[in-house]
Amino acid sequence: MLRILLLLVAGLLVPLTAEAQPKPPLAPAVGVTRVVRMPVTETNEFVGRIQATDRVNLVARVTAYIDRMLFTEGAEVKKDELLYVLEQPPFVADVQAKAALVAQAQAQYDNADITLRRAEALLHTPAGQQAAVDSARATWLSDKAQLMQAQANLRISQINLAYTEIRAPISGKIGRTSVTVGNVVGPNSGTLATIVSQDPMYVVFPVSVRAALDLQQRYAKKGGLAAMQIRLRLPDGRIYDQIGKVDFIDNTVAQSTDTITLRGVIANPRIALAANQNVAARELIDGEFVTVLLEGVAPVQALTIPRAAVLADAGGDYVFVVDRDNKAEQRRITLGQSTPSTAVVMTGLKEGELVIVEGLQRVRPGQPVLPAPATPQPQAARG
């Protein structure tokens, strides 16, 4: 009976053991795309700051109280536009007093001139004396000097009167006033308001010396600075619709950061919706931080794949390539200048190879896969 029971138990265990054995895994379905060579625009990104081409701090040149303020804070003003009017009556009176002194000095000078001519005319007669001529000439010279001094004093008074009208030395956007009407201002009162020019604008950005040398070598045979153009990514992520150019490279390297400063110039037109408003609106603001996209003018041919195909670990960037046996092969790659949608591959891939774009989470190195064309994705031409 014991032998019979053992045989029955063994018979029951055989099918259970067979069912417990794992089945070989099925090959996962993946979406693939081919490595293609396409024209891309070389792009380098830097952090830059917008800077006005001209900036003026308005300061009072004479001491007086502010009588009138004739501008709207935050508005754009034109060159020579009247902005502040200071107290004028004391300066007008001073000009009149200095003008009277000029008239007095002029009368004395005219009389001395007549006396000198009479003495010179009598010199050749028995009544003439050389001493009289010399005395008349000395008086003439003294009165002439006094007239010149009076005229200079009048000119100074006229200049001070002109300083009571503070005008815009440049066209641009004026900020808020630091002193209001009724307050006394003078040369030591500091800045009344600041005007910054609006169009065009500078964008200043530091570049590492290594990157600068690379740019210089890359574009030396393509026209130098003329082969580079500037685009800006605004703080809200939008790409600015104007294109600028590099117009200046500094002649020294910042020792603390080992960078050299580049400067570009870019248009900053009015926003159409705000063109008729008193307070002007433009995209670029003096002092604003932006991302500078330094691009080559002519596109170059480069190997590209969708950015979604690129994975990364501690060893760097890699992709999965489908070989001839439909097995996934892990391939280390070196990326060039890429965008969120397109990756430029410098090394590690060949044109025409299949890379896995979809289903990467189910793929392991050396695992068989079932490749199929991936869903088409938009490709960006800027790298």
What are its keywords?
alpha+beta, 6-stranded antiparallel beta barrel, conserved putative lor/sdh protein from methanococcus maripaludis s2 fold, 383 residues, Helix Hairpins, disordered C terminus, single chain, Elongation Factor Tu (Ef-tu), domain 3
User: What is the subunit arrangement here?
Assistant: single chain
CATH topology of the largest domain: Elongation Factor Tu (Ef-tu), domain 3
Report the radius of gyration as a whole number of Å: 42 Å
Count of helical stretches: 4
Which CATH class of the largest domain applies here?
Mainly Beta
Q: Could you tell me the number of beta strands?
A: 24
CATH homolog superfamily of the largest domain: Efflux pump adaptor protein, beta barrel domain
Q: What does the largest sheet look like? A: 6 strands, mixed
State the separation between the terminal residues, measured CA to CA.
82 Å
Structural class from helices and strands?
Answer: alpha+beta
Mean pLDDT across the residues is 83
Second rung of CATH, namely the architecture of the largest domain: Beta Barrel
Summarize the structure.
By secondary structure, the protein is of the alpha+beta class. It has helices at 2-20, 89-122, 130-163, 209-219, and strands at residues 29-34, 36-40, 43-52, 55-58, 64-69, 76-77, 82-86, 165-167, 172-174, 184-185, 193-196, 201-208, 228-233, 244-249, 259-266, 289-296, 300-306, 311-313, 316-322, 328-332, 334-335, 342-347, 354-358, 370-373.
